[in-house]
Amino acid sequence: QIEGGFVMGLGYHLTEKEKFDPTTGQLLTDGTWEYKPPMPKDLPIDFRVTLLPNAPNPVGVLRSKTAGEPPLMMSASALFAIKHAIQDARAEIGQSDFFTFNSPALVEDIQTASMINPSQFTFGQ
Predict the structure, then answer these.
(1) Is 37 or 83 the better-scoring residue by pLDDT?
(2) What is the pTM for the complete model shown?
């Protein structure tokens, strides 16, 4: 539940952008060629989850605790980490203006927000 909720959130924030045809309104990302949910290779290599021992919940249904929604919300940390990386990349090129960075953030959104220009890259220096 915990790992699944977190990975579901990673997909929601980083890969699952719905795209619609501007004239017909038809969903264009409804197949496996366009819709990219997280796969096993997308999982963090070091993914440690521990539960608080001896923490009863006497008011929950059958003493249950929520296990899916909190990790889904924690996955926003990946989006915030990317935003911080973009801020650092922009600072390196002298761009410190405020920018919005919405979820879902696909690779092209990250590249655009970073204001990367291929002429800024150098090789062998």
Answers:
(1) 83
(2) 0.76
The DSSP string of 15-78 is T----B-TTT--BS--STTT-----GGGS-SS------TT---TTSGGG----SHHHHHHTHHH
Tokens of 99: 């920018």
Indicate which residue of 3, 18, 34, 69 is catalytic.
Answer: 69
Concerning whether 18 is annotated as a catalytic residue, the answer is no
The residue among 21, 30, 12, 20 whose CA lies nearest residue 104 is 12
Split at pLDDT 50, 70, 90, the class of 16 is confident
pLDDT at residue 17, rounded to an integer: 85
Sign, Cα dihedral of 55, 60, 61, 64: negative
